[in-house]
């Protein structure tokens, strides 16, 4: 195809009805004038572009490569090349493999490995740390994982360009926005939310999306809910209690905002078959497995969350250089699960987050003194937005509550049926363990070592908390480092990623993946 004298790479599509609805893999042969895209049924396809994405522009223009306000992924043929677009956050990513024959790229690591016939080393224990490294920012994360076919590159936030012969990574457009005051920043958030809503609900889409908000009684999700409500969002859901068992419901906030709010039991996910698998396959963690309990609400929505709000909306300058530093990797484990459940994940605090230092300055400005109630977790920006929407001060942001599930902390692990399948996988890979000269975890020995480590960690935590051992508390920093190290050594959990990856890869290989997903496609 030639347009205005510039040759365009032709995109050819093959729809696979058995694949997860939002998954896609593109094969780009070296020197070819075309690329082939295999995709699930909800991926939007057009002659020059495809996507499972929403962005702050006109849907029909397909110009999601020209903005950093984008959630989801896709590709666009432009100027004799194809630009593959990653989400404008670090809770999603692209991954690609290249050799002399060409490029394979996907929004699913499982789909990519299945397509190229690769697997990871089942005896490698540090996948969790590798994926977690994204908290260090775009300049310092682990950028590849080893596979039987060679290294696979992981790309967060940036786009990937293929010109028919070479692959390169490109930074997203970096608009210099005026965040000199709360009013200007608030206007930016409001405008971006309205643009995203119009794009998501555009009737030119084969599958328009509805906006959906999870609401807790913290700071970040009520802020997102107010912004979304003002852009037409009418639905929300909330979990009844926090990780500690205290009230974490944002139900009355949702009702006050006029949103239909569904309350989900925190442990609803535990009644589902192998619920942790897709989450672990995404990022070697499963903190957001509780979203499985809300699965019936998620399909066909843009899920607007507050992930990384602490790093962007807090008073502390956490990211002076725009590298998207984070305090944790929350939300990343949704990256594979969402493709199966059929929703786009949009963490709102990432909008404009490369100017995080300027946003933090707003939080410390005199304009927000009235909404700065002090404390380590103060979020004056959030408090002003939510309180000015009519939500009483006492209803939200009164303390740090954890909503994520800590499956891999000592004393906690997978559901019984999942554990059985996990140890079955370890037995299936016994030859690989022997070939590499390593001893695979046996159920009894793994549980015993896990118990010993749990006991030791418990003693260390006790030493760090009781006042009688004040001399030991003088050494709290090295003790906490030791505690963190021991947490990472919990033997029974260290090989769950290869298991989850293998089980999820099978969904892409199976004749009828829908029967295996245990959820909407």
Task: Give a short overview.
32% of the residues lie in helices and 18% in strands.
Number of strands: 20
Share of helical residues: 25-40%
Q: How many domain modules?
A: 3
| Cα end-to-end separation | 34 Å
Secondary-structure blueprint:
Layout: E1 2-3, E2 6-7, E3 10-15, E4 24-29, E5 34-39, E6 44-45, E7 49-55, E8 70-78, E9 81-85, E10 94-99, E11 102-106, H1 109-116, H2 127-132, E12 144-145, E13 152-155, E14 159-162, E15 167-170, H3 182-200, E16 210-214, H4 220-229, E17 235-239, H5 251-256, E18 260-264, H6 277-283, H7 295-298, E19 301-305, H8 309-313, H9 334-341, E20 344-347, H10 356-363, H11 380-387, H12 416-428, H13 430-435, H14 443-465, H15 470-473, H16 476-488, H17 496-509, H18 514-517
Helix pairs in contact: 1-17, 4-11, 6-9, 6-17, 14-16
């Amino acid at each position: 195809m030639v347009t205005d004298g510039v040759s365009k790479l032709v995109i050819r599509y093959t729809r696979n009805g058995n694949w997860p609805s939002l998954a896609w893999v593109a094969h780009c042969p070296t020197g070819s004038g075309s690329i082939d895209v295999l995709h699930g049924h909800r991926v939007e396809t057009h002659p020059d572009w495809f996507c499972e994405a929403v962005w702050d522009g006109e849907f029909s223009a397909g110009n999601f490569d020209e903005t950093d306000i984008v959630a989801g992924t896709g590709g666009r043929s432009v100027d004799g090349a194809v630009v593959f677009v990653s989400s404008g956050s670090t809770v999603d990513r692209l991954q690609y493999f290249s050799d002399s024959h060409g490029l394979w790229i996907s929004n699913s690591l499982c789909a990519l490995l299945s397509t190229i016939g690769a697997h990871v080393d089942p005896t490698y224990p540090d996948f969790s740390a590798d994926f977690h490294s994204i908290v260090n920012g775009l300049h310092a994360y682990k950028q590849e994982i080893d596979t039987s076919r060679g290294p696979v590159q992981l790309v967060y936030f940036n786009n990937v360009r293929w010109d028919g012969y070479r692959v390169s990574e490109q930074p997203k457009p970096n608009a210099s926005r005026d965040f000199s005051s709360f009013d200007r920043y608030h206007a930016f958030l409001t405008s971006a939310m309205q643009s995203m809503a119009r794009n998501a609900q555009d009737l030119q889409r084969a599958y328009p999306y509805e906006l959906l908000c999870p609401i807790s009684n913290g700071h970040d999700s009520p802020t997102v809910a107010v912004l979304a409500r003002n852009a037409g969002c009418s639905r929300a859901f909330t979990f009844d209690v926090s990780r500690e068992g205290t009230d974490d419901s944002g139900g009355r906030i949702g009702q006050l905002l006029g949103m239909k709010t569904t309350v989900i039991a925190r442990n609803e996910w535990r009644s589902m078959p192998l619920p942790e698998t897709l989450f672990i396959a995404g990022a070697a963690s499963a903190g957001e497995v509780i979203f499985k309990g809300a699965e019936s609400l998620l399909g066909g929505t843009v899920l607007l969350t507050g992930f990384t709000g602490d790093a962007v909306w807090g008073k502390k300058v956490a990211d002076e250089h725009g590298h998207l530093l984070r305090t944790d990797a929350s939300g990343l484990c949704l990256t594979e699960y969402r493709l199966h459940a059929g929703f786009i994940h949009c963490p709102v605090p990432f909008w404009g987050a490369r100017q995080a230092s300027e946003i933090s300055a707003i939080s410390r400005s005199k304009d927000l003194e009235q909404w700065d109630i002090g404390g380590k977790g103060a979020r004056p920006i959030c408090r002003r937005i939510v309180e000015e929407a009519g939500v009483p001060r006492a209803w939200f942001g009164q303390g740090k509550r954890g909503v994520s599930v800590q499956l891999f902390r000592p004393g906690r692990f997978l559901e019984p049926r999942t554990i059985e399948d996990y140890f079955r996988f370890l037995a299936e890979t016994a030859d690989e363990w022997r070939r590499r000269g390593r001893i695979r975890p046996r159920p009894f020995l793994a549980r015993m070592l896990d118990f010993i480590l749990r006991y030791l960690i418990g003693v260390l935590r006790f030493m760090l908390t009781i006042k009688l051992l004040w001399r030991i508390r003088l050494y709290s920093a090295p003790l906490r480092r030791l505690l963190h190290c021991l947490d990472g050594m919990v033997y029974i959990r260290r090989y769950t990623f290869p298991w989850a990856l293998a089980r999820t890869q099978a969904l892409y290989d199976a004749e009828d993946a829908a029967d295996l997903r245990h959820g909407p496609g």
